[in-house]
Amino acid sequence: MARPAAIYPISIGRDENGRLTLAGHSLVSLAVQYGTPQYIYDAATVRQQIGNLQKAMEDRYPASVEITYAAKSYFSLLFARKLSQMNVGVDVVSMGEFRIAQKAGFRPTRIHLHGNNKSEEELLEGIDQAIQAIVIDSLEELEFVAALAAERHKRPMVWLRITPGVDVDTHPYRKTAHAHSKFGLGVANGQAAEAIREAKANPHLHLTGLHMHLGSQIFEVEPYQRSIRLLIELAESCGFTPKELSPGGGLGVPYHPDDLEFNMNAWVDGVIETVRTEYEKRNWRLPKLVIEPGRWITARAGLAVYTIGSTKKGADGSAIVSVDGGMADNPRPAMYQANYTCMVAEKAAAALAGRARIVGKFCESGDELIAETWLPEVERGDHLVVPAAGAYQLSMSSNYNLAPRPAVLWVEQGMVEVLQRREYPEESAWWMGQ
Ligand SMILES: Cc1ncc(COP(=O)(O)O)c(C=O)c1O
Questions:
Q1: In this structure, what CATH number is given to the domain that contains residue 405?
Q2: Which of 198, 296, 300, 301 has the smallest count of CB within 10 Å of its CB?
Q3: Pairing of β 407-412 and β 25-26
Q4: How many CB atoms lie within 10 A of CB 365?
């Protein structure tokens, strides 16, 4: 039988009463002190995810490598400050992410600007700050960036986002590189080749690299290998040798003990072997290899903690257990049919008593966090802990039903830091019309 996938942060533990702890802190005490819903990031897991990936790449690749964190998976100023000390760059897609990255201390040469519809303001900031790469998404944007650069007598470094037309095995909303994707310059329709030729010839642009991003939650390396080959053939046919090559992010993460484990070493092996083979057979100098994981760095590090409220029996006899959060802090089950698991913090050692469905408190039938799980006997006031909660939850959260957004903590042995204090809509100028 396969081993259950590792989904809890590495610092998870239990105290002598069988209650859950994280980095030695009682989850029940944290819930009481900072309120729920509550999100907690385990520092050791974030460091481990980055460190293992960095080491795997450096051990195998004889040229330069860079990990660029995809800010969209979770970003806030204090979290960004932690990351800026961990030898990673950052991929931003909005002025908000850009400003936070700058304020947190990321050097411009470690910032990439992505997006299929960047604003003039965002592009000008990228040009003025001479960031590592403005990642151009369309022929129209290529002309626009060149015109802005010409006006300012600048020559920004740019990459082109290529859409290889490759389908991957993931939820349709997480696919980004198929022929009908809204992202990037298509290979099949000739736009990618046209963009390479135009960018090379344009005196106001400095084309340094090619980029692709196939989607998210991808567990196989083969689509990356196929797409890398395609990008390199395309570059060669246009007389261009990319000095920087980015196969994007998308590294898969298990959310449930029954999910596949992502084989990070096999993924790194496959990507690096393909880049080396393709470059070496052309006698090209190896490019700087830039990968852009988001979920890989944050998902497992994060826990969501809720307080259980009302419970009732459903039509099928299983319990319907309501918690004090739901789709406002975690829209992933509703958007992607994401499949989570959970534990009860004060009853982690108790016997399982029956089947349960975990629902949120919001006025939508789709507000269901876990369609089916097993729980011990629970009562109002118990705390439900959901693992793999660090990515694309808070960053996609909303104030639906005027729900306050949760407090976010960062924990290490002997230290708890508030990254984001709990929000109160009645304090917000936006809600109160001030
Ligand atoms: C361009 C780009 N790079 C990287 C990522 C990160 O993806 P993941 O969090 O799946 O690694 C995304 C996510 O949408 C993206 O759009």
A1: 2.40.37.10
A2: 198
A3: unpaired
A4: 8
Residue of 216, 267, 297 with the most ligand 1 atoms within 8 Å of its CB, for mutation? 216
Domain span including residue 359: 12-42+299-432
DSSP letter string, 49-103 = HHHHHHHHHHHH-SS-EEEEEEGGGS--HHHHHHHHTTT-EEEE-SHHHHHHHHH
Q: Residue 57 has which token pair?
A: 């790449």
**Rounded average pLDDT per 10-residue block, the chain, 434 residues:** 80 96 98 98 98 98 98 98 97 98 98 98 98 98 98 98 82 68 92 98 98 94 96 98 98 94 96 98 98 98 98 94 98 93 96 96 96 97 98 96 95 98 87 83
Instruction: Classify residue 3 by its DSSP letter.
Output: P
pTM exceeding 0.90: yes
Q: Please say whether the beta carbons of 285 and 322 come within 8 A.
A: no
The CA-CA-CA angle for residues 294, 296, 298, to 5°, reads 70
Whether 313 and 263 map to the same domain: the answer is no
Same domain, 307 and 263: no
Same domain flag for 292 and 353: no
308 and 400 share one domain: yes
Would you tell me how many other CB atoms lie within 10 Å of the CB of residue 406?
A: 28
What's the pLDDT at 1?
Answer: 47
Is 342 tagged catalytic?
Answer: no
> Among the residues of 340-399, which ranges form H helices?
none
Q: Is 294 in the pocket of ligand 1 (CB under 6 A)?
A: yes
Using a 10 angstrom Cβ sphere, with 0-12 exposed, 13-18 middle and 19 or more buried, the burial of residue 203 is exposed
With a 6 Å cutoff on the Cβ, whether 390 touches ligand 1 is: no
Q: Say how far apart CA 169 and CA 370 lie, in whole Å.
A: 23
Nearest-CA neighbor of 416 among 83, 34, 101? 34
Alpha helices, DSSP H, located in 108-190: 120-128, 139-151
Report cis status (omega within 30 of 0) of the bond before 37.
yes
CB 340, CB 48: distance < 8 Å:
no
Name the residue of 292, 332, 393 whose CB sits within 8 Å of the most ligand 1 atoms, as the mutation to test its pocket: 292
Run of H or E including 33: helix 27-34
DSSP 8-state secondary structure symbol assigned to residue 251: B
* pLDDT of the residue at 4: 72
